[in-house]
Amino acid sequence: SxxxxxxxxxxxxxxxxxxxxxxxxxxxxxxxxxxxxxTFKSKVLARYPxxxxxxxxxxxxxxxxxxxxxxxxxxxxxxxxxxxxxFIITREDGSRTFGFSLTFFEEVTSKQICxxxxxxxxxxxxxxDILHTPPTNDKESCSSxxxxxxxxxxxxxxxxxxxxxxxxxxxxxxxxxxTPMSFMKACKKVLEQLHQAVTSPQPPPLPLESYIYxxxxxxxxxxxxxxxxxxxVYGPIxxxxxxxxxxxxxxxxxxxxxxxxxxxxxxxxxTCALLEFQILLxxx
Length: 284
Fold this sequence. Notes:
Blueprint: E1 9-14, E2 43-48, H1 59-66, E3 73-75, E4 83-90, E5 96-107, H2 111-132, H3 139-145, H4 153-159, E6 169-179, H5 184-199, H6 208-218, E7 227-231, E8 236-240, H7 254-261, H8 263-274
Antiparallel strand pairs: 1-2, 1-6, 3-6, 4-5, 5-6, 7-8
Keywords: Guanine-nucleotide releasing factor
Organism: Chloropsis hardwickii
Pfam family, one: DENN
C-alpha cells in the first residue's frame, strides 16, 4: 500500500541533445511553419525516484502530458514567461494520479542544436523562395515583392528570425510533480520556488537536491480534515485536506473558469449540468 507521501515523483522533461531535433508527429507535421513555430519531440530526461511500487511510472503518458505541445523554441525577442498546468492519469482500474507541470525556457548551449535550427531556416527560406519568386518578366510582381532577387527586407525579417551569429536560442523545459492527491496550489508553489532557485543569481539556502528529497520522502499527506505546513525553498507552503464529511478536494481557483469561459458560458454550463445534459468541452 502507498505510504501516504505528498509526492511520488519529481520529473524533468525537455530536449535530448543526443537525439537532436525530431518533429513531433502527435502535434502534426506542419513544415509550412517557420522552424521556430514548429514542435519537436520532448523526452523524460530524469525522474526521482526511479520507480515506486504503489504508483508505477508511465513514461509515455507523463512525457506527453508534461509537454503536450512538444518542445518549443524561441529567441531573445520572444516572450518566455513560465507556464503552469495540471493533468490527470487515469489507469485501467479507475485509480488516478495527478501531475503538476511548470514549463519554462532555458538557453540552448549545444552548438549542434543551434546549427541544426540554422540549417532548418536555410532550408525553409530556400523552399519559400522557390515557391514565391515571381517570373522574371512580370515587372508588377517584382515591384510588389520588393525586388526580383528574392532578398526583400520584409521577407528577411519574416523568415530569417533566427541567426546563429546574432540571436540567442531558447528551448522549453519542464519540471513536474506526480502526486496521489490534487494539491494544485501547493505543488505550483513548490515548482515556482524551485525554478526561482535555478534562475536566481544567488544560490538557495540549501542544495536543490535537499528540497527535492524533502518533498519526495519527508513531507507526508495531511490526514483527512487536517492542514499541513512544510518548508519550500523560499517560504512555507500550506495545503489542506477536507474531512470525509466535507466536499471532495478541489484546489483550483473558480475565478479561472470565469476568465476562460465568460459569465454567460459558465451559467449555461451550470444549467446543462443541473439538467443532466451531455457536456463536451473542447480545448486547443
